[in-house]
Write a structure and sequence with these properties.
Number of strands of chain B: 4
Order of helices and strands of chain B: HEHEEHE
Strand order of the largest sheet of chain B: 2-3-1-4
CATH class of chain A: Mainly Beta
Oligomer: heterodimer
Mean pLDDT of chain B: 84
Distance between the termini of chain A: 59 Å
Radius of gyration of chain B: 15 Å
Radius of gyration of chain A: 24 Å
Largest sheet of chain B: 4 strands, antiparallel
CATH topology of chain B: Alpha-Beta Plaits
Strand content of chain A: over 45%
CATH architecture of chain A: Beta Barrel
Helix content of chain A: under 10%
Shape of chain A: globular
CATH topology of chain A: Maltoporin, Chain A
CATH superfamily of chain A: TonB-dependent receptor, beta-barrel domain
Helix content of chain B: 25-40%
Structural class of chain B: alpha+beta
Low-confidence stretches of chain A: 1-46
CATH class of chain B: Alpha Beta
Low-confidence stretches of chain B: 12-18
Number of domains of chain B: 1
CATH architecture of chain B: 2-Layer Sandwich
Number of helices of chain A: 2
Structural class of chain A: mainly beta
Chain lengths: 669, 101
């Protein structure tokens, strides 16, 4: 593989005095409090926009954009975003996964309020764990990210900011119903107890009870699902102290597999039962030492307990994953031009897995397995800002894992703004993560293939390099926002999911090359008052060595086109949203018909919203082109055969869907 | 393209409707005063539901709220009531017809 980009990274790292604060960058579009490390942000421009001053290539999906589609959960919040793809992982469990820069969502570091979250065993169904109405905004950073949040970001970071008690006062809620008979309700309330203390309660209930098999393959198109979640937040701020606490509990049940409608008499039904219980807590504390220099200390503590009992056909897989996280950080503006951040972090992961796979080559895979990993890290990030022309950020971190010993993470970002209408960004950096073959890929058990897992999996390690150009071109007194970007990810070590051989699913270490190239161009222009159009096109290629044969990574679309339009009437009483997507072909690991590539297809979503003073009504449709993957389950007539595979999914498995919802708002000002 | 065409026609019809309406501009000062963007948002997001409201501008510097409205659909009293609902009293600075161009 070409090593030039790696060499360039080190050269860039040697250039002194290049850095910039990752937090101060957002001030133009956001009102960021002094406690910047806690990223308390109020989105002013509430629709999707690129953060102009950010040294990172960062999109913000604001609260207004989250209302442009059904947005029942985090997974449905990227409908209008050109950079993030969300696909079903398989045709039976309803699991969805993110793809960023043409690579799996496991390489995107997920954060809630800038604290690592939704890791390990939570990954497969994590996109359903944050209800849409609980979210205030989402920040999508592409490429190498700040070292502050740990070494795990490879293709980027997605940070979810939730509703904040100290910024809200009142009650909100929504009720949603769709043509798949899914019902959902959310209620949120925040109250300011006094000038210092505020609290919020967030509730979510959903129920999808439809046992439907539109394609008559004997399997439910989507599983029945129930979810209950509850969160309580507290915020305390007084003079130089700011503290935020959040606790969350979630219970989810999914039932899928062969439909009872078609298999009433069947005694040996292929059933899917997934039960998840999850507890989360995070506590962030900041103390401002010096207002003038923004000098602050912060202590962040977080923990998650995730318990998931999975029964997929004849295979059982139960996993308990407990995580503890602590970070102590210090940050100061030495002068207006120089900023320094440094910190210590500690992460502890505990996995207990009961594995009972139906078809395995190595019997030792089955049984009880325990794994503990403790990672202690230290980091420093130096930033430099020269007027508004040059911003740079260089970070290094050294971590020690009891599983993989010491490892070093360098990352650098540069932003150069030669004139008002152009910003050039470049980034380069390394990322590492520990792969958990089954915990992170549970939906892959919906296969009749024999499962083979390497005894010792490497720590995943990759470089990411990227460059982007952002133009703001004035046309007719309005700005055309044009963005062009290119990213290259090169893996040194990686967990490879190899389904190239018939009848075998091999999860093992990379032996050879694995990389991805992604190029994207997108443009947004407000043609007239209230009407805005965004067009985007992304080309991507990802290749991996499978047993000495360099092949396209399967189920990765070669291109994606997106066209999204929104129109608001002058007083924003009515809003109309339409989004169209064109998804390119993907390589299939099992040829269908005579082709080993899927066909390109188009998707269309639309929504109309009517605002009233105390509530709004929205009605919309998803997949209005009614495009469905034909026969998504291979060998559906013999679920215990080696041909059976529900994981070769490249398009929607369910067709057109209509929905209606009502949102309530009782704001206290 | 079709959408743009439809929207353009809709805009023309809307402009036509504006021409026909008895448009006025109401300028008021609020009590308590507006302090921040949150106050501005509160006013804009609520007053827009008064019938016939076409445009609202808030100015923290001058502490004035300018409202373009169709006087055949609403009166100053309607705006007074709407402001009162969200905790503001208003003092009318001016209420003049908008000249048709």
């Amino acid at each position: 593989m070409p090593r030039l980009p790696h060499i360039l990274t080190f050269i860039l790292l040697l250039i002194p005095a290049f850095a910039a604060s990752a937090q101060e960058d957002t001030q133009e579009e956001m009102d960021t409090t002094k406690y910047e490390d806690l990223e308390v942000v109020i989105i002013k421009g509430t629709s999707t926009e690129r953060v102009k001053l950010s040294v990172e290539n960062k999109d913000v999906i604001g609260s207004a954009d989250l209302l442009r589609a059904a947005c029942c959960s985090l997974g449905e919040s990227f409908t209008n975003n050109p950079s993030v793809d969300v696909n079903y992982s398989d045709a039976t469990t309803g699991a969805r996964q993110i793809k960023l820069l043409g690579l799996s969502g496991t390489y995107v570091q997920m954060l809630t309020e800038n604290v690592p979250n939704l890791r390990g065993a939570a990954i497969p169904y994590s996109l359903s764990y944050i209800p849409g109405p609980w979210m205030q905004s989402i920040q999508v950073s592409k490429g190498a990210s700040s070292v502050k949040n740990g070494p795990e970001s490879i293709t980027g970071q997605i940070n979810v900011e939730m509703i904040k008690p100290h910024l809200q006062d009142g009650a909100w809620g929504n009720i949603y119903f769709d043509s798949n008979l899914k019902t959902e309700g959310n209620a949120t309330g925040a109250i300011h107890l006094n000038d210092r203390l505020s609290t919020a309660v967030l509730l979510h209930v959903e129920n999808a009870e439809k046992d439907h098999d539109a394609n008559n393959d004997g399997f439910m198109d989507m599983p029945k699902a129930k979810q209950y979640s509850f969160a309580n937040r507290w915020a305390y701020r007084h003079k130089h102290i700011f503290s935020q606490f959040m606790a969350k509990a979630l219970h989810e049940e999914r039932l899928g597999g062969q439909s009872r409608h078609h298999n009433e008499s069947m005694t040996d039904r292929y059933g899917i039962s997934l039960n998840t219980n999850r507890l989360e807590g995070q506590w962030k504390n900041a103390y401002m030492l010096n207002d003038e220099h923004n000098t602050s200390f912060a202590l962040i503590l977080a923990g998650q307990m995730h318990q998931s009992d999975n029964s997929i056909g004849k295979s059982d897989y139960d996993v308990h994953n407990n995580t503890g996280y602590a970070q102590l950080l210090f940050e100061t503006d030495i002068t207006e031009q120089h900023n320094l951040a440094a910190g210590l972090s500690y992460n502890y992961d505990y996995f207990k897995e009961h594995i009972g796979l139906f078809s395995v080559v190595t019997p030792s895979i089955n049984g009880l397995h325990r794994q503990k990993e403790a990672v202690a890290g230290v980091y420093a990030q130096y930033t430099f800002k020269l007027n508004d022309k040059l911003t740079a950020m260089a970070g290094i971190r050294e971590d020690y894992s009891n599983q993989f010993d010491a490892f070093f993470t360098p990352r650098i970002h540069l932003k150069y703004t030669p004139c008002d209408w152009l910003s050039v960004r470049a980034s380069s950096g390394k990322g590492y993560r520990t792969a958990h073959a089954l915990a992170e890929n549970t939906p892959l058990l919906a296969t009749g293939r024999t499962i083979l897992i390497d005894e010792k999996l490497d720590q995943e390690e990759a470089w990411n390099h990227g460059v982007s150009l952002a133009f703001n071109i004035p046309i007719n007194d309005k700005d055309l926002h044009l963005n062009a970007e290119y990213y290259y990810t090169d893996f040194i070590h990686q967990l490879i999911i190899d389904r190239e051989k018939d009848g075998v699913l091999h999860m093992g270490n990379l032996n050879g090359d694995s990389y991805s190239h992604t190029a994207q161009i997108d443009a947004t222009y407000p043609f007239f008052e209230g009407f805005e159009l965004t067009a985007a096109y992304r080309w991507q290629t990802a290749k991996t060595d499978y047993n000495g044969d360099l092949k396209e990574r399967p189920l990765t679309a070669k291109y994606k086109g997106l066209l999204t339009a929104t129109y608001k009437t002058p007083m924003e009483i009515w809003q109309f949203d339409v989004t169209g997507q064109l998804i390119g072909p993907s390589r299939l690991y099992v040829a269908v018909g005579n082709s080993n590539h899927s066909k390109p297809y188009a998707l269309l979503n639309a929504q109309i919203t009517r605002e009233f003073r105390l509530f709004s009504i929205y009605i919309g449709g998803e997949n209005l082109t009614n495009y469905k993957q034909k026969d998504p389950i291979l060998g559906a007539n013999d679920p215990l055969g080696t041909i059976f595979d529900a994981t070769q999914i490249w398009a929607p498995t369910d067709g057109i869907m209509g929905y209606v919802g009502i949102r309530f708002k009782f704001n206290k000002y | 393209m079709k959408k743009i065409l439809i929207s353009s026609i809709a805009s023309l019809l809307f402009c036509g409707a504006l021409q026909a309406a008895d448009m006025k501009e109401l300028v008021v000062k609020t009590s308590p005063e507006m302090h921040c963007q949150r106050c501005e948002n509160k006013i804009k997001s609520n007053i827009r539901f008064v019938k016939g409201t076409k445009k609202i501008n808030t100015d923290l510097k001058s502490q004035e709220v300018s409202i373009s409205y169709d006087a055949e659909k609403s009166t100053v009293a309607d705006f007074e009531a709407a402001f009162k609902k969200i905790g503001y009293n208003i003092k009318v600075v001016s209420n003049k017809p908008i000249e048709k161009k």
